[in-house]
Design a protein that fits this description.
Length: 457
């Protein structure tokens, strides 16, 4: 019996050691092709850079007004319910009335056209981007910075951030030149016509975009999908990326998940009590929150085209679907407020600008397809999540973000984490919600990145 127990112990130890070694094993960097995603013949593709302006026809606006004015009556909310069942239709009615009677698209169109915009074909997709250079930088060094948004956002999230990043400030020896693209299938950027354009493939697209614009080395920043795409860019192209800043740093590997589970037995192994223990543990509370907020993700990852039909046909439905996220993702406690807390950080005009970008471009279906292209075997078997980032990195953690991860887990992926900030306020849409706070953190991070010995500056 003693020999049997020893044998099982040895076999168990070997299996555990083997499993841990496999979890810690770094896979090779995948070789990704420059896939042609567009609908046209590559030999006939116009590859020139074209100036772009948002110009919506009167017919589109008249159709929108008709749909808003003739929408069905909204179903009343249950008694005593705010936004626990989704957006409260009393609030939604107020927003739709504002949209129909006070929101002036022609004024907002001028606002949205305030920055230079262009389109360029990359891998068969005509991509839209904002490109702002600093005025009168003088002797200050100008650093290129790629900014990437996510869903259900758009380039509109960055409009208050862009001037802060591109304006020289006394005492600072650098300023940014920013490139702000619409993701493929979002807003004014063309969508893929074949399956397979996920975040990893988008990393290739944006590397090629920056190359087409003449940038060999540059900094990158992102939130939501943008955070994942810049993470992949930093992983795949360390020779091109000078530094990566993210307001949604996230590690999703078997080893990181194992650490989180082990931490549930004794949290100090993983997270400082003063840091984020209450945001992560107990895991049952964390997963309950995720269950409440992630129903949309399962729908969009499995049936994006079906949900897209209704959203693309009804502006009221589209606004409800998007604005709900700006309530609970900015602060989950706002779901208990009658007004959803929206005007604490935004104006109705700001929020409707973002909704309008989806409406006028009819891009809601193509935007939500990104979920289907992400949660699949091809993306998860690539091994990219297990490859460490070695370039200088920075993470901005906002307390109301959907998911926060401890530093010990972030360092599993971000091996050269030179800057990490924990803020007392802010949520998922940091660039839109707190542009000055985010801009200051980006500048602070890049100062540290430039002073890092491994930085190529």
């Amino acid at each position: 019996m003693g020999l049997t127990v020893k044998l099982f112990f040895v076999i168990g130890t070997v299996l555990i050691a083997y499993t841990i070694s496999k979890l810690c094993e770094t896979p090779p960097v995948p070789k990704l092709e420059d896939t042609w995603w567009g609908p046209r013949d590559p030999s006939k593709e116009d590859t020139s850079i074209r100036p772009f302006k948002i110009q919506v026809s009167d017919g589109v606006l008249q159709d929108l007004q008709h749909r808003l004015s003739n929408a069905r009556a909204l179903t009343p909310p249950l008694e005593g319910v705010q936004h626990q069942y989704g957006i409260n239709t009393k609030l939604l009615k107020n927003i739709i009335d504002y949209w129909r009677t006070k929101y002036n698209w022609r004024e907002r169109e001028k606002f949205l056209n305030q920055f230079p915009q262009y389109t360029i074909s990359v891998q068969g997709l005509r991509l839209h981007y904002i490109h702002v250079k600093p005025t009168n930088p003088g002797k200050v060094k100008v650093l290129p910075l790629l900014l990437l948004h996510g869903w259900p956002g758009s380039v509109r999230e960055f409009y208050d951030l862009i001037p802060l990043l591109t304006k020289p400030v006394s005492g600072r020896d650098f300023v940014f030149e920013v490139i702000v693209p619409s993701l493929p299938g979002y807003g004014f950027s063309e969508a893929a016509v074949k399956p397979g354009l996920g975040p990893i493939e988008m990393a290739v697209v944006f590397k090629n975009l920056m190359n087409r614009l003449g940038f060999e080395k540059y900094y990158i920043q992102g939130g939501d999908w943008g955070a994942l795409i810049v993470q992949h860019m930093a992983t795949l192209y360390p020779d091109r990326i000078l530094g990566v800043h993210s307001n949604m740093c996230f590690v999703n590997s078997a080893l990181s998940n194992l650490k989180l589970i082990l931490g549930s037995f004794y949290p100090p192994l993983i997270v400082d009590k003063k840091e984020h223990e209450s945001k992560i543990y107990p895991l049952s509370t964390f997963f309950s929150k995720m269950m409440l907020e992630m129903g949309y993700m399962h729908i969009q990852a499995t049936k994006p085209d079906t949900v897209g039909v209704g959203l693309n046909d009804s502006p009221v439905g589209l606004a409800a679907y998007i604005l709900e996220k700006f309530i609970t993702w900015t602060n989950e406690e706002w779901k208990n407020l009658d007004d959803g807390g929206l005007t604490k950080k935004f104006t109705y005009a700001d929020l409707l600008d973002n909704v309008m970008i989806y409406w006028i471009t009819e891009s809601i279906t193509t935007s939500v397809r990104l979920y289907s292209e992400s949660f699949n075997k091809a993306q998860m078997s690539s091994g990219v999540d297990k490859i460490p980032i070695t370039i200088p990195s920075a993470c901005a953690r906002f307390p109301n973000e959907l998911a926060l991860q401890p530093t010990i887990i972030l360092k599993e992926k971000y091996r050269n984490l030179v800057h990490i900030t924990d803020f007392e306020d802010g949520g998922h849409f940091a660039a839109f919600e707190l542009p000055k706070v985010l801009a200051d953190d980006i500048f602070t991070a890049v100062v540290k990145m430039r002073s890092t010995p491994s930085s190529q500056k």
